[in-house]
Amino acid sequence: MVKVMLKEMRKKLLSGILPPLLVVLFVPMIASFWPTFKDQIAAFQELLQNPIYIAVLGQLGLGDLSSFQGFYNMYIFVVLEMVMLFITIIIPARMITTEVDKRTLDVTLSYPISRWRYLLEKFGAYLIFNLLYPILMLSVTLISNKILNEEMNFVLLTYGFIGSWLLFFALGAISLLCGAIFLEGKKAITAAGGIIVGMWILVRIGGIVESVNFLKYLSLFNYLNTAIIFSEGVMPLDELFIILGVGLVSLFSALIIFEKRELAIV
Description:
Elements: H1 3-11, H2 13-24, H3 26-37, H4 41-47, H5 51-57, H6 68-90, H7 94-101, H8 105-109, H9 115-130, H10 132-148, H11 154-182, H12 185-208, H13 226-232, H14 237-260
């Protein structure tokens, strides 16, 4: 029933598990830095007022760095966001375009299932691999925090990782849609990169320049932000539905376009 998805997971096993494994290494690294960092908090808080840091960190730079929770959130979720930019632009957009570029599309069309289901199962493998981020990072964070014996709200932290995974879904669906529309690697990645990086820039500009504050609402990066989740102490359901809505519309559009359009076998 999910033969394509399992085949995709076997085929992409290394590239699927390596990024989460590399990112999770930042958790013990940050935990080891924390005892030294506590003595330099005042100087670091002043450094964060630099416009460059504000542009890169966004709302995550506004957290309480006097606690391990704030220090952890700032570093981990910024790293995760950078990884997310790269993965969501490249991987979903290439799910179909790689086969077109390599002239192996006839293999895709020979499967005894509909095209939309074929694409959905490939995207499902992408989503499953991205579940490794919250699972691994929460597990290693729990161990590191036990060693440090610092206060940490794991409920809100879980909400933050759920928000990140939903962004992987929504941004990935947009990238997949670009792949289904263009069916050519460079064009699809360029389009996906323009949209996703453009949204990242919008939320940063909107957060820095008050006169154009409205721009951040046009970006998915503005929603389910970990800093907001921790400041409000809840998972904002309205933002959750915004992310889900954009992701589902993009995903369904990609599936419909791929199912309906004429594909030349070469």
